[in-house]
Design a protein that fits this description.
Layout lengths: L1 H24 L30 E2 L9 E2 L7 E2 L2 E2 H5 L1 E4 H6 L22 H18 L3 E5 H4 L6 H19 L4 E6 L18 H20 L4 E4 L5 E2 L7 H21 L5 E4 L9 E2 L4 H10 L6 E6 H6 L4 H10 L3 E5 L18 H13 L8 E3 L10 H28 L1 H9 L6 H7 L5 H11 L9 H11 L1
Parallel strand pairs: 1-2, 5-6, 5-14, 6-7, 8-10, 10-12, 12-13, 13-14
Antiparallel strand pairs: 3-4, 9-11
């Protein structure tokens, strides 16, 4: 009798192991196009991207559109791993909330996991898709606006409760490896912000935007965010005839001062970033470009509390190159982060395209290397698929291409620096200042009397060639 009992128990144990193994080994469900049943639940944990493998590095000769050709995360360039130079981040708003709609046309994208609502369940489903996307790209950073990830409620209390619920899920999905590069509050879409947020002439709007930013800083801190961004799309004017610009600038400065005080109060050590943009949607936005923003920060004593988030498409809208804006921020000691995108010169608005120009990426990386990197900032893809790109696969292809372009720019910039020819050309151009008098001038110790005496002694100065074509030849040879 005892032997039969033992045999029965062994058979039962075997069956339990088999059943357990089968349940564990079963592939996750895929998301049907009609978002039915299980997929319709916010708790669904299946494969949002069936058929898309984890993206691997295959090198420049690869023809696989779902592979990295230039971005090799662990490879060392100039003593630092590529992933540490670049610190890539996925932008939730374009990647998961972009619809393909524009001022002249309806949305063109309906992803399989979307159900057409802005419910909490839908918000949670998008968040799960976000982390699966990060995992398949091999990235560990993302960034968000508060209203992108959670629906706005009828009251600020309801909005905060919605945000808390989605952020709790994000915290769980992040684990210990993933964190936000930055978070921010969306202070431009809702009609209440039509005159601005921190610069609104309505005190109630100023207070409401402060409450919204307070909450956004809190959740960014809770998720382990490394930075917090302010983008003032409505902080400016349409006409000076009805605007007290001085008063609005003072209000904005006090708003930033309060943000600094609150981040310190709650122990948030992330960097506060201002993102310059000249216009669109407002005719004139107060953070016009890097130089204007630096001047604002200095005037109000905030230069040590903020850095800049430079967006390449915003740079071109302000009449500058991305390289110029990054260099301006760098030499002022306020380069904090880069929104990696580009515009189309034939369109003339903020098209937010993925950066695909290797030459531009090389110039950008020359400045980033001179800056010693961007940490705790990085590169986030504030870029969206073209309206006509509607396959789920296109989301991956766009990010892979953008990452490869910037990685190739890093490789090229390292080549230029290691070759030394460009640096030597620049050094020779300023060689006359590498003298005793040059040192006096650069130390601020050469007065006009001394300089006049030298001019009389030397006579007409000789002016050398700038060697611009040679500089461009050296640059082009690296890309």
């Amino acid at each position: 009798m005892k032997m039969k009992s033992v045999k029965f128990l062994l058979l039962l144990s075997s069956l339990i192991v088999v059943v357990s193994y089968t349940a564990t080994a079963a592939p996750p469900p895929t998301c049907p196009a009609d978002v039915s049943s299980d997929c319709g639940s916010g708790e669904w944990e299946g494969d949002f991207f069936p058929g898309i493998p984890k993206i691997k590095y295959e090198g420049p000769t690869s023809k696989n559109p779902l592979a990295y050709k230039w971005y090799n995360a662990e490879e060392e360039i100039l003593g630092k791993k590529m992933k540490d130079w670049l610190r890539f981040s996925i932008a939730f708003w374009h990647t998961f909330r972009g619809t393909g709609g524009d001022p002249f046309g309806a949305p063109t994208k309906t992803w399989p996991w979307e159900d057409g609502t802005n419910s909490l369940a839908m918000a949670k489903r998008r968040m799960r898709a976000n982390f699966e996307f990060l995992d398949k790209l091999g990235l560990d950073r993302w960034c968000f606006h508060d209203r992108d990830i959670a629906p706005e409620g009828k009251t600020i209390e309801e909005s905060n409760a919605n945000l808390d619920e989605v952020v709790a899920l994000a915290k769980e999905l992040q684990g210990t490896r993933i964190r936000p590069l930055w978070g921010t509050a969306q202070l431009f879409f809702h009609p209440r912000y039509m005159h601005g947020a921190a610069t609104s002439p309505e005190l109630g709007v100023y207070a409401y935007s402060a409450a919204q930013v307070k909450k956004a800083i809190e959740v960014t801190h809770y998720l382990g965010g490394e930075n917090y961004v302010f983008w003032g799309g409505r902080e400016g004017y349409q006409s000076l005839l009805n605007t007290d610009m001085e008063r609005e600038l003072n209000h904005m400065a006090h708003f930033f001062e309060a943000a600094v005080a609150y981040k310190k109060k709650i122990g948030f050590n992330g960097t506060l970033l201002i993102e310059p943009k000249p216009q669109e949607p407002t005719k004139h936005q107060y953070d016009w470009d890097a130089a204007t923003s630096a001047n604002f920060l200095r005037k109000y004593g905030l230069i040590g509390e903020f850095k800049l988030n430079i967006e390449c498409n915003h740079a071109t809208l302000s009449g500058h190159s991305c390289h110029h804006e990054i260099e301006t921020a760098r030499i002022n000691g306020i380069l904090g982060n880069i929104d990696a995108n580009s515009g189309d010169p034939q369109v003339g608005w903020d098209t937010d395209q993925f950066m695909m120009d290797v030459g531009e990426a090389t110039l950008v990386m020359l400045s980033v290397i001179k800056n010693g990197g961007l940490a705790p900032g990085g590169f986030n893809f504030d870029a969206k698929l073209r309206r006509e790109s509607t396959d789920v696969e296109d989301i991956f292809i766009a990010h892979i291409a953008g990452m490869d372009t910037i990685a190739r720019g890093l490789r090229n910039a390292a080549k230029l620096i290691e070759g030394g020819l460009l640096d030597e050309l620049v050094r020779k151009r300023y060689a006359s200042f590498d003298t005793e008098l040059g040192a006096q001038i650069e130390a601020g110790k050469a007065d006009f009397e001394l300089l006049e005496k030298k001019t009389i002694q030397w006579g007409e100065p000789k002016v050398g060639s700038a060697k611009q074509e040679l500089a461009e030849m050296i640059f082009q040879s690296a890309i």
